Amino acid sequence: MIDKAVEKLIKREEARQKRVINLIASENFVSDDVLRALGSVFTNKYAEGYPGARYYGGNEVVDELENIVKARALKLFALNPLRWAVNVQPLSGSPANLAVYHALVPVGEKIMGMRLDMGGHLTHGHKVSVTGKLWTQVPYGVDRKTERLDYNALLKLAKREKPKLIVTGYTAYPRTIDFKKFRKIADAVVYPELHRRGAILMVDMSHFAGLVAGRAYPSPFKYADVVTTTTHKTLRGPRAALIFSNLKLKTYDKKRSIAEAIDKAVFPGLQGGPHENAIAAVGVALREAAQPSFRKYSRQVVKNARALAEELRKLGWRVVSGGTDTHLLLVDTMSRGMSGKVASEKLERAGIIVNKNTIPYDARKPTDPSGIRLGTPAVTTRGMKEKDMRALAYRINKVLKSV
Ligand code: DSN
């Protein structure tokens, strides 16, 4: 590179990533092919619009690219193209979620979403996010005792509050989600003034999309109306996002399918030119995720998270909800008198990267919460297995107990 300053930083970051043990649940290491696509000449192209309907000339290659990526996305999740559509243009998860609400929920209406401090995401209607300013969040959490979703409580809440959309899929919930129960909850919402029933069910599978692809976590597609996902977490692609929509469903005004409304919300509603280089890299990642080795990988991700949780428990650490069914776990460090901030800083000094995280019913603030979140997607890509997780748990325990 001619720019030595940036080149040096790239090299330093590469060395840092190699040196540390990365337990950030939402990070991963992409393949060289994904990087190659991301750094390709597709970055030079403006392609506002959709295949066959662009605002600029010279899009014949880009059109083919987007169509291939769409087909791969549907195939990976075993979706019939006559029943599901996918938009591959969202720049990342937050704009993808915003696009869904913008398309499907009139401004000012209610969105039922998990509270941020219980494991939800900012874009599930939190007040500091634009999603909480334009729409009203009906917040829900987990049961205080089990630290798991209480579907009966959710049903009561949904029937009482009548949200137009219910969002499930979280950033810090270590357990399997029962999508069938969520479908029933959404269907039980009645809007007498509209003479209709049934809230839209949106699943944000950003965290576990790779596990769904690898058949290591239940698929939400049988029950959801809309599914959003980022592509850079367990799915192991570049930073981007996808929105899947069920073609059977119409918007509230019944004027068009939700897929059409979502396409319009992404462009021109929220975005300009799509990042075609990122879309190309998503295509590469989707192909990789369709290989048998990816199934093995995603199963190992879950096995590793379980082994890590189990070993930490044996060493006396309280793991939220008692364990994990996914790629992540939450450790209540405050139960041993240490805030999540202090714990994460201590671990970072020892070369183990985690993030501080609130735990359910946290009495502390998100900037200095009671726990840490650990995830295994990145270390599993590096080839770690259960025995390495046990060794890692010992190391974590030693570091946290040191003065
Ligand atoms: N920031 C991501 C996470 O770490 O979970 C969610 O977008």
What structural class do the secondary elements suggest?
alpha/beta
How is the main sheet built? Answer: 7 strands, mixed
Task: Provide the list of bound ligands, each named once.
Answer: D-serine
Helix content: 40-55%
CATH homologous superfamily assignment of the largest domain = Type I PLP-dependent aspartate aminotransferase-like (Major domain)
**Widest sheet, order of strands:** 4-12-11-10-7-5-6
Classify the beta-strand content into a percent band. Answer: 15-25%
CATH topology of the largest domain: Aspartate Aminotransferase, domain 2
C-alpha termini separation? 44 Å
Number of separate domains: 2
Level-1 CATH class name of the largest domain: Alpha Beta
Rough shape? Answer: globular
Radius of gyration: 21 Å
The mean pLDDT is 97
- Per DSSP, the total helix count is 14
